[in-house]
Design a protein that fits this description.
heterodimer, A: 115 residues, mainly beta, seven-stranded mixed beta sheet, four-stranded antiparallel beta sheet, 0% helix, globular, B: 116 residues, 9 strands, 45% strand
């Protein structure tokens, strides 16, 4: 158990709908990362937040957005869903203020199926 | 972050040591070598990381060459449960000044298959 909690574990929704994925980082971790893993793309970095602020952005679609709340949990919002958005979405966290070599820990992911 | 090169697949007999190589010839002085693994559709699992010196923990050993251009992850006694994709990643460490750290950039990794 990495200590990173993601909900829901599985989600099935229709095209055009909107969903929210939730992540609770490890206790005390300030950084949250979101990754997408589809069958043909491998693990793709989407976005990173640090202590409530966006820190880095990857290949995140404009239909997707994220935020990190004051209690440090994060949500990834996916809207106008398409079949190609079906994937595993991982959240990860790290402390962010320790000395170099900090480790990132991953949750078990949220399976999204768009039908 | 520097790119890494790993063999796409490897086989290992159960109970034997699994040695997974990684080339990172363009690594910078402030970049660490991280190893993660992903067992089918589970979240990536942290294994070990290092900067210059060899490292060992309860899961594995990490051997980094003196010039830091390559490294080897060693699973001393591989079991069937070690069958997974293993990722070697180089990443700039976080600092007290910048905070936040840097993302991990995953390549295609090495599919390790442990067999009886």
């Amino acid at each position: 158990d990495s200590g990173v909690t993601q909900t829901p574990k599985h989600l099935i929704t229709a095209t055009g709908q909107r969903v929210t994925l939730r992540c609770s980082p490890r206790s005390g971790d300030l950084s949250v990362y979101w990754y997408q893993q589809s069958l043909d793309q491998g693990l793709q970095f989407l976005i990173q937040y640090y202590n409530g602020e966006e820190r880095a952005k990857g290949n995140i679609l404009e239909r997707f957005s994220a935020q990190q709340f004051p209690d440090l949990h994060s949500e990834l919002n996916l809207s106008s869903l398409e079949l190609g958005d079906s994937a595993l979405y991982f959240c990860a966290s790290s402390v962010g203020v320790r000395s170099s070599g900090n480790t990132i820990y991953f949750g078990e992911g949220s399976w999204l199926t768009v039908v | 972050d520097a790119k890494t090169t790993q063999p796409p697949s490897m086989d290992c007999a159960e109970g034997r040591a699994a040695n997974l190589p990684c080339n990172h010839s363009t690594i910078s002085g402030n970049e660490y070598v991280y190893w993660y693994r992903q067992i089918h559709s589970q979240g990536p699992q942290y294994i070990i990381h290092g900067l210059k010196n060899n490292e060992t923990n309860e899961m594995a050993s990490l051997i980094i060459t003196e010039d830091r251009k390559s490294s080897t992850l060693i699973l001393p006694h591989a079991t069937l449960r070690d069958t997974a994709v293993y990722y070697c990643i180089v990443r700039v460490g976080e600092s007290l000044l910048t905070g936040g750290g840097n993302k991990l950039t995953f390549g295609t990794g090495t599919q390790l298959k442990v067999e009886l």
